[in-house]
Amino acid sequence: MAILTGAGRAFCAGLDLKELSESDAYEATEETSQADVAATMERCSKPIIGTINGFAITAGFELALACDILIASSQASFADTHARAGVIPGWGLSQKLARLIGIYRANELSLAGNFIDAPIALAWGIVNRIVEPQDLLLTCEKPARDILPCDQELVRAYKKLIDTGFALTHAEGRALETERFRSF
Question: What angle, 0 to 180 degrees and rounded to 10, lies between the N-to-C axes of helices 103-112 and 93-101?
Answer without folding.
Answer: 130
